[in-house]
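Hi C.,

You asked whether I'd gotten around to modeling the 185-residue construct. I have! Everything is below, sequence then structure, no commentary in between.
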Amino acid sequence: MRVLGVDPGLTRCGIGVVEGVAGRPLTMLGVGVVRTPADAEIGMRLVAIEQGIEAWLDEHKPELVAVERVFAQHNVRTVMGTAQASAVAMLCASRRGIPVALHTPSEVKAAVTGSGRADKAQVGAMVTRLLRLAAPPKPADAADALALAICHIWRAPALNRLQQAHAAARPSRIPATAPVRKVPR
C-alpha cells in the first residue's frame, strides 16, 4: 500500500509518502514540506498548498491519503488555518477518487511510538528508525507526515476488519427487493 501522509498547516504543510504493508519493513518514497509566506493573502496560500499537494499526487500516485484530523486548540486562528489546509488535502485526493483517512495526533503518536503523549522528538526518532533513515526528517512537520502514513499502513488492516464486522452485525433494515410505495397526493 502506498500512502501519502499530510500534516496540514498554512505556513508549513508536511508531506510524506510511505509504501509497505503491516508487519513488514516500510519504505519512504519521499518527504517534504509545502511552504507559504505568512504575509500572503489566505486564498493565495491555499492555492499554493493545493499546487504542492497536486504535484506530490502526480509524482507518487498514492492509493490513499492520510490527513491529520484537526483538533481543538486554544488558538482559533491556528485551528482555522490547519482546517483549511486539511480541507485542501482532502479535496485534492477526493477530486482524483483517492480515499482519505483521518487520524488524530494521539492515534499517530501511539501507533508510531507506543504512547499517545509522545513529543515531536520521539515521533521523529521513531520515524527515523522505522524507515531506516540516516537522520530525522526536518522540519518536524515532514516527520509528522511520514508518521501519519505509517500509522495508516499499520492500522488499515484492523480498521477494515472492524468495518466489515460492523457491517455484518448491522444488516440493512430495508430488503433489497422491497416494493416502492407511491405516496397518494
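If it helps when you're writing up: The chain has a mean pLDDT of 90.

Thanks,
B.
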